[in-house]
Design goal:
The chain is of the alpha/beta class. It has one domain: Alpha-Beta Barrel (TIM Barrel). Helix content is 31%, strand content 14%. The strands form three sheets. Strands 4, 5, 6, 9 and 10 form a five-stranded parallel beta sheet that branches. Helix 4 crosses helix 5. It is globular, with a radius of gyration of 17 Å.
Length: 251
Amino acid sequence: MTMLRKITLTAIGCASIFFGVAADIFDSHGCAVRISENEKVIWPVFSADSAFEGAPEALDAMECRGIKGSFFFTGNFLRDTAHRTIINRVIKGGHYVGPHSDGHLLYADWDRQRTVLVSSDSLLDDMRHNLAELARAGVDTSCVKIIMPPFEWIERSQTALLHDSLGLKVINPTPGLEVYRDYTTPDMSYYWSSERLLSQMYEFERKEGLNGVVFIMHLGTHPSRTDKFYRHLPEILDSLTSLGYRFERLP
């Protein structure tokens, strides 16, 4: 289980307060995993490297409810002209748009120590290239201060490096909330159906609440997953709004 800690206004190392008022919760690698956790706010986030077929549905659902989200795009995604229309729609829609690695690199191994797989120079070059692609797409990168690491996986020294060298803060999905498993396919032993994901989400809300959670949804999944979780986004937005939560984009 990922170690979590609450950081107050006396920030420790690279784990700084996002908004400067409410305490945030960081994991042991310096990633913010709950933001303004004393408020009934949910941060919907979406990442993309290749497939993104569910984006029009998700944007429709948010736009008709006046909700802004946060999108994290790789350089691979931004360079693919097939995605230009949807990228422009996200940017013009006023959503937050940030980097997700230029080449969708795996920054650290999956082992317990998260052994670093890329050099410091390579990490910074990868992120700078990603920021350059965002700028070419029309994003004002002077306002880009928050990233989501590729594969939602990073090692603490890398989090510190991005913060100290580029002024970037790192977020990751809230541990314990299993909605990130919406990428799984039926052939996997750890496959989660949409019904199971929804059930776990509501159970998590009942037991721990969703205050400040970073709520990720994958809008592009393998064709073999016909049970697309993103099709439940309207239901999720409406049901959680009825419970008193509000959905906001990152600043």
